[in-house]
Amino acid sequence: MTEPGAHIAVVDDDPDLLRLVCLQLEAAGYTAVAFDTGEAALQELALPTSGFDALVTDVMMAGMTGLQLCERVVASHPQIPVIVMTASNKLETAIGAIRVGAYDFITKPLNFDALAIAVARAVENRRLRDEVRVLRRAVAAAQGLDELIGGSDAMRRVYAAIDQFAASEATVMITGESGTGKEVVARVLHRRSKRAAGPIVAVNCAAIPETMIESELFGHEKGAFTDARASRAGLFSQADGGTLFLDEIGELPLALQAKLLRALEERKVRPLGGTQEVAFNARVIVATNRDLETAVEEKRFREDLYYRINVLHVALPPLRARGRDVLTLAQSFIERFSGEAGKRVRGMSPPAAARMLGYAWPGNVRELRNCIERAVALAVHDELMIDDLPDKVRDQQRTELVLPSSQPDELVPMEEVERRYILRVLETLGGNKRQAAKLLGMDRRTLYRKLEKYGVAATDDD
Questions:
Q1: CB hemisphere CA count around 158 (13 angstroms)
Q2: Can you name the residues that pair with 58 across neighbouring β-strands?
Q3: Tens of pLDDT along 391-448?
């Protein structure tokens, strides 16, 4: 796909072909600069302001040949990929071009569609190589939020919410798909709060048997049930002075939801089997990967509890909606796991980076972390190669759609297309949600639910 603003140097001593190639590249969206000799191209490349993203050269030229030019460019400007144009009956010339470091070759007579594809790949390779080179600095600068690194708009909204909510004592609800890092956000909120010196106690509500969860949360007295041989403080009491993180709160049984609501309202808990209520002093943060509004409508989650826990809201985006954050996170994991394994894996090759960018990551950051841990363990080079990646990442089928207004190098799935389209319609209609819902063909409740998921205020309007 064309990289906007990419500058391509074109070298050929045939003026007609030179002009035609430049015209075709400019029609494809590039800025093409013509040179009729290799010497002239090298002189321009030597200037600090040249800024070429790729070079296309013919082989058979008077004076310096295309192979000689390619060799000189690879030696002095290795960051610039070179594409060689060669006659179709000169296979040995094409092989020679690859041997001296050419990125690709195109046979004559020229197929301009094939040339455009080759140039697009070369520019993408150049951009990826540059990006991979600077990732280590980006990761080093972003370590303050642990695994919450990346510069996408979606994550900047998360950082802003964390900065705004950290000092508050109000309950925070964190939503997002499994593996997006909800517990990481909870721990960052705790670490930046006034309660940082106190404990953070985390519990996965879905992992505790229903018969035990009340005892785990509120504690129990000796003899409260068969195995209660001694009194035990619950998690609310254990988190005293700190933060209690209730993960997967949508899995709580309805009967316990009523007791949790009372505890949050009264700031007291009654241990199982006890007669006295015990006050607790803990901030509560909850998280879920479920649509709690739908659960409320279906009577699977209490509406009063939903509004009690949804005081402050952090919506974590899926990894597939975070664009090139995938590479920043991958570099962070590479540094961590290579250090732990005592290996000298410093980064990833541009082809491996391209595969990771194209994969949808249904398991989100957790899946990426596991992928990199495995890849580092298998790596035999100083950077991750395509063969180090899992089969599903390496052999992916590129079925995603590209939204016309999205970044030209960003492939996005249908869910992200829908998000962007909804927000575009809303912007076009001046924020009028009633009109937007009508135009989109959905009821307002559905639109409001989606907007809340996107982190957009979903209040009624006229």
A1: 28
A2: 85
A3: 989 886 443 333 444 444 445 566 767 777 788 777 766 677 877 777 777 777 888 8
* Each residue's pLDDT tens digit, 345-366: 988 888 888 889 888 898 999 9
Question: How do beta strands 219-220 and 232-233 pair?
Answer: antiparallel
Tell me the whole-structure pTM to 2 decimals: 0.65
Q: Is 141 exposed, middle or buried (0-12, 13-18, 19+ CB in 10 A)?
A: exposed
Strands 278-279 and 268-269: antiparallel
Instruction: Assess whether pLDDT exceeds 70 at residue 143.
Output: no
Are 229 and 272 in contact by the 8 Å Cβ rule? The answer is no
pLDDT of residue 358: 86
Handedness of CA 55, 111, 6, 104 (dihedral sign): negative
Antiparallel, parallel or unpaired: β 383-384 and 347-348: parallel
How confident is the model over 39-47, as a mean pLDDT? 92
